[in-house]
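User: Run a structure prediction on this.
Assistant: Running it now.
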Amino acid sequence: MQNIQLKMTPVLASALLLGLSSVAHAMVPESMQVPAGHKVALETVGVGEITYECRDKPDAPGELGWAFAGPNAVLNDSSGKQVGRYFGPPATWAAMDGSKVTGTQLAVSPGGEGNIPYQLVQANPAMGEGAMVGVTYIQRLDTQGGVAPAMACGEANKGERQIVKYQANYIFWKAS
């Protein structure tokens, strides 16, 4: 039996990453699937914070609760190099080249205990020229942390803000 050794080149590493990526996308809950006719344009890891504010619940007058006030994260590629930012409101994904997109949430799916949910967003047309031009969908997957604080939210701390750390994969799709 012949022993074959492969040298890990950038091309081979990319091919393996893309192959594993396809398998990972197949395991995404059905509600988070991007419609046929789209391909992955960019895969990033968002590392940052989500701010919550103690305020009146919009659907329950007179009740207070921790409400999402906005994200602030760095988007890194697979090598750890910063390729963009995620911030808001409104939720905005911006590439280092200055192009950016906002979007409309289509679906969410549980991300596991202690993690913000997975999310599927339909992108609005990009602003500027660059990497975000043509992005049609954004998936937030593999979330870690980011849930609202467990501490009480009441009249005594109404208006208080709390920052929570989180991480998630953001997958950007374009029409194929």
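The two ends are 42 Å apart (CA to CA).
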